[in-house]
Write a structure and sequence with these properties.
mainly alpha
Length: 90
């Protein structure tokens, strides 16, 4: 058709990578820590990450019906950390 194909390069988005790393780190911290103080700090950090993740996932109103489970999934570290803190397992 005469349209030239040019390879596009997507710039790295370090904010999303950092958010995913903090998301995973809060879950790993909840699993491996032995201190209630560390769990309390981890709970505060995971709440902040979850609220920011919820805002990012909910930013596009066209995808809201499709993203229901993703919006709930961002609160997984909060649930994990709160259950470890509440249960007295550690």
């Amino acid at each position: 058709m005469g349209v030239p194909l040019v390879q596009a390069e997507v710039a790295p988005n370090w904010e999303e990578f950092a958010g995913a790393m903090v998301f995973v780190a809060t879950m790993v911290c909840a699993i491996f820590t032995h201190s209630r103080v560390v769990l309390a700090v981890d709970l505060a950090v995971s709440v902040m990450v979850a609220v920011a993740g919820f805002a990012v996932v909910s930013a596009n109103p066209e995808n809201l019906p499709k993203m229901r489970w993703a919006r709930l999934g961002v609160f997984l570290p909060v649930v994990m950390t709160a259950s470890m803190l509440w249960s007295g397992w550690r």
